[in-house]
């Protein structure tokens, strides 16, 4: 039959059926489509619930394996009785090992004064004990035992000989899932270690646990997901750890890890450092390899994610950076510029010009945070540097829009897909806003503006791109603004800036820490791609609490943050130090001087 004949036949047939029946048929087809899609979604939800339960059981089994290999006994003779691999460390010894500063621990491991196996057992023991209250372990790495034994038998000792390190869940470790707290990624174990894990192992480090993350990694307040649950802050278990490297922050702050690896695309190393009071470094893009990690958010070349160390002191960050910046890493990932750690910059003595601020044009940080910046300023002045007040240009206007529009360019579609058909954690509940068509969001932005200026700004800045041309043009505009920013920085002759990490200390769990904007002060350096380090400088005092009472909030955000900071006496307060791209060594130098100056002040 010819095509025309067939078409005429169909038209004839349809004309006898009538419009009503046609409409009914179309509605039926659409209905079946939706029911089918819903059934598929529902089936996935049921399947995912089962996968999550099994994963939790598996985690418990792994914890038991590690726990059961630890038989506590006071004497070595008893340990021998239990078997060669059982640990024989008393609580006292465990404390003395786990409390050592990184350099001292490495020194004792290298000299043979401490065995890698004992050090591993001490940290495993401490981690398992602390985890009961804090829940920072997503999974122990059981191969650590064999690695420590191999290390003890080795003749050649690497720079990180026997150093136990913790690894964020999203970083690839052979044989282990990178779920990001999403059931869809359960049972997809990594076939290979990521480049950073390979290099750390080759340098003698012993990865011994993977640490928890917020579901999808796109939460900077609360670290929680439906597989492994909520991670708590060791300084106050009713407060958030920050995210997304919250498991690392909690573990390091608890003393259960001396140093670990986190990732940061929009503050994820730095907010947990601030909330948990630990040291951290977000390097420039491409200084440290990202190859072999979970690819979430890695497709957006205007905002790339960085792997960086989080640790107990500046030395821990330095030893990890030195170990990673080696020919092995440059060979395993040829996209990384082969720039080794430059001791001459880290150990430099040149007096520096450092800008400082606690208001980026979007309101003052909380009083304790302002005091922390002032404290850092006076310590650095005593070290001989020139500190200048500086307000970075256009942060709350242009930069806010550039960062958020670029970060949300795909309307979080990749992120929402990760948790499709899965239970969604409350820490990412607000992501669903991006499913509302933009024209409705823009109306909402106008309506909420009088009561919540920040939410209104978020809603405006979530504007999607209508074409690739618009996306390319916007990228060029953002690059031009970055160049202007660099000019403003260089016109002051700045080497670095010191500013708050975020405007508050650790916020209470619940709605408050789930709210948007926690990454205030830190996202700027993702947009700019400037290396940024976090240094704990003080603790909230009674006087800060008094001043907080007088703090006049100018927006709903400041009101929320002020309320969250109430009752925070004793919580750690950090500052942030940023330098120009690829100046990680300079950033670490300033952090080290600050750390030394603060210790001197205490004594
Ligand atoms: C309309 C309001 C919804 C806004 C929700 C999103 C809020 C902020 C924008 C993106 C922030 C990115 C945070 C990324 C955190 C991070 O660094 N993750 C680590 C990935 O390695």
From TrEMBL:
The keyword Acyltransferase does not apply. It holds the Pfam family Amidase. The keyword Cell membrane does not apply. Keywords: Hydrolase, Lipid degradation, Lipid metabolism, Membrane, Phosphoprotein, Transmembrane, Transmembrane helix. The active site is at residues 168, 244, 268. GO terms for biological process: fatty acid catabolic process. InterPro entries: Amidase_CS (IPR020556), Amidase_dom (IPR023631), AS_sf (IPR036928), Endocannabinoid_amidase (IPR052096). Residues 118-588 form the Amidase domain. The chain crosses the membrane at residues 22-44. It is an enzyme of class 3 (hydrolase). It catalyses: N-(5Z,8Z,11Z,14Z-eicosatetraenoyl)-L-serine + H2O = (5Z,8Z,11Z,14Z)-eicosatetraenoate + L-serine; (9Z)-octadecenoate + glycine = N-(9Z-octadecenoyl)glycine + H2O; N-(5Z,8Z,11Z,14Z)-eicosatetraenoyl-glycine + H2O = (5Z,8Z,11Z,14Z)-eicosatetraenoate + glycine; N-docosanoyl-ethanolamine + H2O = docosanoate + ethanolamine. One of its GO terms (molecular function) is fatty acid amide hydrolase activity. Its EC number is 3.5.1.99. Belongs to the amidase family. This is fatty acid amide hydrolase. It comes from Lingula anatina (Brachiopod).
